[in-house]
Design goal:
The protein is an all-alpha fold. It has 4 helices and no strands.
Length: 98
């Protein structure tokens, strides 16, 4: 049963990665993400995604400090009424399951 649950989680994650990469491509970005850890920890891909979804609402990050960049992405996500359940450190720290 645990193996089935893990397969479902992987299928969901694969779907999200494909959706994410589709929007990165639509935005003209050369970046692609293969995971939600090290591939997004600099916040650029998240920033590009949010800007692509709503350019008038979400500006792209310009900050050089990783924590400031991640905080900017979180603030942009709040514009979609996404509750801030993560911190900049959560974005900056790679996911150990990679």
């Amino acid at each position: 049963m645990a193996q089935i649950k893990r397969q479902e989680e992987m299928a969901n994650e694969d779907f999200l990665l494909k959706w994410f990469n589709h929007h990165l491509e639509e935005a003209g970005s050369p970046r692609r993400v293969a995971n939600f850890g090290s591939d997004v920890q600099d916040s650029e891909a998240y920033s590009t995604l949010l800007h692509q979804l709503s350019p008038g609402k979400c500006d792209e990050v310009q900050e050089t400090d990783p924590n400031d960049r991640a905080a900017h992405v979180i603030e942009n996500a709040k514009k979609y009424n996404v509750p801030a359940t993560i911190t900049p450190a959560d974005i900056n720290r790679p996911d150990p399951k990679e």
